[in-house]
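Note to self: the last two entries modelled the partners one at a time, which told us nothing about the interface. This time every component goes in together.
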Amino acid sequence: MHDFPKILIGLLIFIVLITLPVWYNVVSGKAWTKPELVIETEHVPGKDECIMDADRMRSAHMDILNNWRNDVVRSADRIHQTADGRSYPMSLTNTCLDCHPNKDTFCDRCHNYMAVAPYCWDCHIVPEQDLGQGDHGATMPEDDMHGGGH
Amino acid sequence: MSVDRRKFLKLAGVVSLGAAAKPVSTLLASEDPIHVKKMEEGAAATAPTVSPGPPQGEASSFREPLTAKRWAMVIDTRKLDEATIERCIDACHTRHNVPEFEIKKDEIKWIWEEDFHHAFHEQDIPVYTEHIRHKSTLLLCNHCDEPPCTNVCPTEATFKREEDGLVMMDWHRCIGCRYCVVACPYGSRSFNWRDPRPHIEEIQGDFPTRMRGVVEKCTFCEERLARGIAPACVEASGGAIAFGDLEDPHSSVRHLLEEHFTIRRKPNLGTQPQVYYIV
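The predicted structure of the combined assembly is written out below.
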């Protein structure tokens, strides 16, 4: 057991390294905090309420959008009927972002916190002022897929 | 060779060092939000301009959709001159955010110009004059009745809409395998080798772009038909292109097909293309 001190030093270094992210946050003093969802709703005439209540939207928006895209593209069904009989075009950019135009606060803040990266914006256009922000499509290296077919 | 405790501990130390290095390096790499932000802004500055397009927010603003049992197109090549051809291509490609690449192999096209003897090479005979040979015509997806592209698609990203015969693209599902590009005998499909966005002159905000790694093609302006508007090329052609329901005996395409001799591209393949050419 005369190597015990060496082993102990090694173990200590190992523990420090593996817990480095924790120490880093403690020292830098900015641990992650849960982002606050600020719903900055623009009041669009005729659209006073969301298509569902906020709780449902929070938990099910991804399923709704997934169903919408299938309905529109595959079944040519473009109108969403709400439970209380209102109808909206099934459109992420024209319906959702019409009332919630700030993608940075409305979409990205929680998605970044949850480390989910939906690829909506690789193709769909962020309306008006926000274009280019978070547009990872534009910053992707271009040449990776060349060479395969040529 | 046996591994004694000493060797095991050495090895374990090296392995765990390696494992620890990865999260630490990503943590350090992700730590400079200002720097990242700046890079994004730089990209945004060079991003193309966007025009918002017509407002489509209200469900009530939807006009009655145009429907048919079998959409078909008749192109009157006698009425096609260079200006018309250019107008049609321009209308379509602008409308659908089709990028323009300088390098030919990256080219994306929904509708394009081709010489007669290339478009209809089986019908080229030696006595044709150069004038006939090089007469320009417009080519696009034929929206075949028996589309070979949909048969080979492993994800059903491209499929034939049974209600009206359109050969559709679901870009959400396309995995970029390019079987359809190979299967299409008409060259109607283009693959996005590069990110298309920087190569679109003016992005139309109400139509998505595509991303790198998906296949795209003409959709007979399905999104316009749904709003009760004729396809962009038909509108821009000034009467050279007719579009309508092949199953409706009173439609414009039926009248044209009854009154004129028309040809189709590669009819011998059995794909039943639905773009007809009056020559």
